[in-house]
Amino acid sequence: MFWPKKNRMRLNWSIAVFVAVVLLPSAAQTKAASDAQPSAQAQGSGYVPAHKFDEKRDAAADIQAAIKEAQRTGKRIILDVGGDWCSWCHVLDKFFEQHPEIAELRDKNFITVNVFYSSENKNEKVLSQYPKTEGIPHFFVLERDGTLLHSQGMAKLEVGGEPNPEKWKDFLTKWSPAAENAAKSN
Asked: Domain locations in the chain?
């Protein structure tokens, strides 16, 4: 089929505009996203964090993987005991979204492991190694080797029924590896 030169030029321009408007930005966004979050493999680690509560996960294996990653990175570990059924756990998720500086402080200093807990799955074998929880959510701070450093209920991290940014900042700062290093140098 023969196309007049004028129509071929319009078609070529249409294709060029489509590529420029649709395909190039998409490719750039994909590259930017992959550059912003290098894979665990690229960072020299096979560790893949589990940030959602999942009753089917092997909590003991997750903790062991977190210990290896904490030893590699020099971070401590926070076991976040809760569940997808827990309204406070969802409030806490939103809190960290609304306070990225506190989430950054947490992620800079800790490997966080979500340990599922419910009446059907209490993860008793894993949690029996730690003090009794004061409700859900509950947090255990572990040293790089898995040794328990601190047990913390949510009630001490809230004011007026809401997570408190200052209390969270104090908690994360107090138990961070940087606090340990500062204490050793004094």
From this structure: 1-31, 59-185
User: What is the residue type of 125?
Assistant: K
Q: Which fold has domain 59-185?
A: Glutaredoxin (3.40.30)
* Amino acid making up residue 143: E
CA nearest to 116, candidates 61, 162, 74: 61
Q: Judging by beta carbons within 10 Å of its beta carbon (0-12, 13-18, 19+), is residue 97 exposed, middle or buried?
A: exposed
Radius of gyration of the chain (CA): 24
First to last CA, the chain: 85
Residue by residue, pLDDT tens for the chain (186 residues) are: 454 555 555 545 454 444 444 444 444 443 333 333 334 443 556 788 777 899 999 999 999 999 999 999 999 999 999 999 999 999 999 999 999 999 999 999 999 999 999 999 999 999 999 999 989 999 999 999 999 999 999 999 999 999 999 999 999 999 999 876 555 655
Q: In terms of Cα–Cα distance, which of 174, 165, 160, 161 is closest to 76? A: 174
Quickly count: other Cβ atoms within 10 Å of residue 106's Cβ.
Answer: 21
Q: Which residues contact 81 (CB under 8 A, 6 or more apart)?
A: 115, 117, 123, 127, 133, 136, 137, 138, 139, 140
Task: Give the pTM.
Answer: 0.74
